[in-house]
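Give me the fold.
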Amino acid sequence: MRQVYIFTNIDEHTEKQLTRVNQLIDLNETKIHLIHYLNLVNYSYPGDMIVPFYPNDNQIAKTVKQLNDQLQKYKSAFPNLKDENFQAVVQGSNSAKRDAIKLLEGQKTQLAVCITPKKGTIENFFHSSFTDHLAAYAPCDVLMLRQLS
């Protein structure tokens, strides 16, 4: 079975973008892994002590549950995909770029899809640093989709 990992933000454009993925990729014999990284910021303090400043553990758990619930709803963008071939994961991370590459290296991934966030006029010429990193270091092909209005 072909493994496809889709890295996405969660916003009002996500479902439309996932519908585009559905139109571009043959989903027969494909398992879709929909991944969203929740940025966890850590600050270094003297004495090599690392203290999470925000969000705290309770806030993280609540946010992860809400985001997971939202990701599960995006299964509707893939109407012909069997439920057992769809997995949605929200993962806390201090470095989404590095964690995405590690994830892809540890799997037999045939394709990574990155939905780039919409940017302002000048910025439209560039992808996000996450997208650039994925394109440079992923052990598989990468499909980059510009977020449409």
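The beta strands are 2-7, 30-39, 41-45, 49-54, 86-93, 109-116, 141-146.
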